[in-house]
Amino acid sequence: MVTQQYKDNIDTILQKVQEADAIVVGGAAGMSAAAGYNWYRDDANFQKYFNAFAKEYGIDSIFGGFYYRFRTEEERWAYLATLINFVAEVPIGQPYKDLDQILRGKDYFILTTNQDTQFLQVFPEEKVSAIQGNWTYLQCGSPCHDGIYPYAEQAKELCAHIEGTRIPSSMVPKCPECGGHMELWVRSFVFLEGTKYRNEHIKYREFLQKNQNKKVLFLELGVGLMTPMFIKEPFMNMTYSWPDAYYITINPDPEHGLLPWELKDKGLAVHEDIAQVLRDVVENS
């Protein structure tokens, strides 16, 4: 049953989107979960793509496999190739398509801690800053140089050569500069914060500087408390200090979709399914 409060929330979102001179979207793991891609659970996608690894090693989630201590590089890269191929192959989630509809005709920018490329498959690269890296790129594990490499096509080829849960030793990726081991270009102890990483921050800061004196809507989608320093806390602080800013967080979990009392007159917390909320915003626009 749709409550009056829910209808009022949809109306408020529509109003704030329409009124905004600029919209800053913050998207995290909850957005991909709403699209059906959950990195922390043993679900249908995990069973479809990673079942062999689940059976062999007792891995129970995509992230669980990423951090698993495989015995050999051949086993580890069989898993990582499967992960990269999964990210590159799965369809674009409906919430991302609905967000695209909502943002059309608006001046917007998207900041995301997601590494699954869903935002980048829908929106122009110049409008998205993926500040935690990208599952489909590799870097040197040292890292010995400032370079990242697209690896989706090569990962697909690796998957075709997996036997059980291993790839041939000759296919384990090596750094083209030092010959050392490679890593996925995602947040880790060796994450390369080089030119590409700095450029992601530069284009985001430039958008903020251009719009800080305008009517700005900060729209937070599925951002939790694991890394609040990247999206949640800056969004709250800018809303508090910018005179014409407004903050909306959409998160089904009330413990993560927080609205500080300091923003009670400048913000809205919607504790509903993100996919349903975005769909209803599109249908009522």
Outline:
This protein is α/β, with parallel strands linked by helices. The chain is 42% helix and 16% strand.
Estimate the global geometry from the Cα principal axes: globular
Tally of structural domains = 2
Number of distinct beta strands: 9
Query: What would you give as the CATH superfamily of the largest domain?
Result: TPP-binding domain
pLDDT averaged residue by residue: 97
Distance between the termini: 21 Å
Structure description:
It is a single chain. The chain has helices at 4-19, 29-34, 44-57, 62-66, 73-89, 94-103, 118-122, 152-159, 195-211, 232-241, 274-284; strands at residues 22-27, 108-112, 128-130, 133-140, 148-150, 182-186, 216-221, 245-250, 267-270. It has 285 residues and is α/β, with parallel strands linked by helices. The protein has two domains: 1-37 and 92-132 and 191-285, TPP-binding domain (Rossmann fold, 3-Layer(aba) Sandwich); 39-89 and 136-186, no CATH class. Helix 1 packs across helix 11 (274-284). The longest helix is centred in the N-terminal third of the chain and has 17 residues, at 73-89. The mean pLDDT is 97.
Question: Which terms would index this structure?
Answer:
single chain; 285 residues; alpha/beta; Rossmann fold; 2 domains; six-stranded parallel β-sheet; three-stranded antiparallel β-sheet; 11 helices; 16% strand
